[in-house]
């Protein structure tokens, strides 16, 4: 069972709200540090294991700096994310560009920074060569297609996915870039998203280690590193269990020994680029109840909306809700918890059992630390909200101010 507790007391959050207006996202720095240490520990046996935080989950340099201090790099998917990584003090191969349909400017910037480039297609070899030159180290994203049965609920069947190269293309691509002077090679895949079964990742490791062996046998190329992508899920629902990282690490260790060590290919560096599990459970969207409305159903209207967290509206995703100070009250009422967008799917919860809610109550939406603020938008003229960091000494740092009307108007011509 995942415990859905708040990292602040009622008095503490009220003091924070006096200084920073709701809605805002607040991240628990100590919990982020403890959690990422657990991930790194689970792979302490692996040669030079590296986690590249998927910046898209929470693109804020203050969060990235916290992670950098823990030895975590950055997985970037765009020019802006590369620049954020640079500003967060990361450099060279602490950064990987895992992008698709990539514009030349991203390849150029990644080359300039000495970041690892992860190519999404065989045709990108020529494109990269023309626009940025071929680097000494290169990685390819593998799409196993029908060779990976089952698929994962969110990311879907690999055969239907636009990412990566087929097995045949991957082998040709490695041979081509070897000819072009590449000296160090990496393989990447990502076949899961929000996956809670650790066995899924162990199977993926087996698949990738088999590929490393095949590349070695058929091309004589020694792969230097394998990146399993992100995709470790989080228990959004209280009845779900977090992935057991120790079992995950040990399962991959066993696969590594059976396939890599036994075939004389040790050391092979391993990497992941998790986003959701790194920050997701440690970010909270804090809002205030503006209105209550009783028609065919009972509604509670917040000052936050889908622009602050679109997962419930977009995927019908469950996010746990706490009403501050009423955590232990009986859940005797059924509400739809809404935002103010002119979209009927602007709801954080539908038919949710909650304690009696009053106007002015502080409502906290859990697990908003990844793909939360990051997926925000300005529809209906909504302004992006602030992001705060709850420091280990309990002080609060503003790490992104809220947008103002002036920001909203800044790109318009009158
Ligand atoms: C290439 C790539 N790597 C890593 C991630 C991070 O995935 P997650 O946040 O599920 O760990 C994503 C997410 O979309 C991705 O596209």
UniProtKB/TrEMBL annotation:
GO BP annotations listed: lysine biosynthetic process via diaminopimelate
Protein family (similarity comment): Belongs to the Orn/Lys/Arg decarboxylase class-II family. LysA subfamily.
Binding site for pyridoxal 5'-phosphate: 231, 273-276
Assembly description: Homodimer.
HAMAP family in the cross-refs: LysA (MF_02120)
Domain Orn/DAP/Arg decarboxylase 2 N-terminal: 32-279
N6-(pyridoxal phosphate)lysine found at: 56
Protein task: Specifically catalyzes the decarboxylation of meso-diaminopimelate (meso-DAP) to L-lysine.
Domain of life per record: Bacteria
InterPro entries: Ala_racemase/Decarboxylase_C (IPR009006), DAP_deCOOHase_LysA (IPR002986), De-COase2_N (IPR022644), Orn/DAP/Arg_de-COase (IPR000183), PLP-binding_barrel (IPR029066)
Binding-site positions, substrate: 276, 311, 315, 343
Assigned EC number: 4.1.1.20
SUPFAM superfamilies: Alanine racemase C-terminal domain-like, PLP-binding barrel
Catalytic activity: meso-2,6-diaminopimelate + H(+) = L-lysine + CO2
Alphabetic keyword roster: Amino-acid biosynthesis, Decarboxylase, Lyase, Lysine biosynthesis, Pyridoxal phosphate
GO MF, one example: pyridoxal phosphate binding
Pathway per the UniProt entry: Amino-acid biosynthesis; L-lysine biosynthesis via DAP pathway; L-lysine from DL-2,6-diaminopimelate: step 1/1
Catalytic residues of the enzyme: 342
Cofactor(s) recorded in Swiss-Prot or TrEMBL: pyridoxal 5'-phosphate
Listed name of the protein: Diaminopimelate decarboxylase
